[in-house]
User: What shape does this take?
Amino acid sequence: MTVPAPDLVQRAFGDAALNRLWLADITGLPTWRGVLYLAVVLDACSRKVIGRGMADHLRAELVVTALQMALWNRRLDAIVVHHSAR
Assistant: This one.
């Protein structure tokens, strides 16, 4: 069994600066051809989607695509906390 990572955010999502806290989630979207999965990365300060990926599976490359897009869009110059439910 895998031990979850510690919750560095403690449910305090109102970070005051850009690129300090990113939030991530995945959701399933029913379509006529089956379920599509959407992975997103949001900046907690701006509340903007900075990365996304969509696929018909829940394999690792779905979330890697969203994270790579966020990294490319923001070009970090400091440490960022990436938070997700699990």
